Each structure stands twice: as C-alpha cells, then as structure tokens.
Amino acid sequence: MLFRRKQKMNAAYDEKLIELLGRSRKEWFQHRELLRLSFEQNDELEAQTKAAQAKYFFLFREAKKRKIRIKE
Fold first, then answer.
1. Which region holds residue 69: left if phi is over 0, alpha if psi is between -120 and 50, else beta?
2. How many C-beta atoms surround the C-beta of residue 5 within 10 A?
C-alpha cells in the first residue's frame, strides 16, 4: 500500500517537473532571443539569461536523474 502511494506521489511530482522544465526552457529561449536582438550590451539581461539557462539545465539534469521520459 505504501509503495503504491509513493509511486503516485512520484508520478505527480514528475508531471510537475516536466511542466516546470517546459516553462523554464521557454523562458530561457525568450531571454536569449531578447539578448540577441538588443542593440546595446545589457548586463542585467545577460545575467537573467544565464540564470534562466542554469535553471533549465538544473531541471534537465534532475529529470535525467529520475529517468523521466516526455511523452508527446
């Protein structure tokens, strides 16, 4: 009984991780595109882009560690 409950909890958290991974990827790409299109060097935007990239790769490594597969 406890094992099934743990599986359900893991599945729920895996779904949340997949959603968060998608949102963070989208955010990173938006920041990257803004940085590419900007005329002047903007240190704050560059820092936000690097932070978004780091967040995405952290979540990506966590998904890989949990062996999560995204079903399309």
1. beta
2. 9
End-to-end Cα, the chain, rounded Å: 31
Model confidence pLDDT, tens digit, residues 12-39? 888 899 999 999 999 999 999 999 998 8
Closest of 16, 22, 11, 10 to residue 55, by C-alpha: 22
Widest distance between CA atoms in the chain: 59
Q: What is the pTM of this model?
A: 0.79
Question: What's the CA gap between 11 and 13, in Å, rounded?
Answer: 5
Residue 14 CA to residue 67 CA, distance in Å, equals: 10
Length of the chain: 72
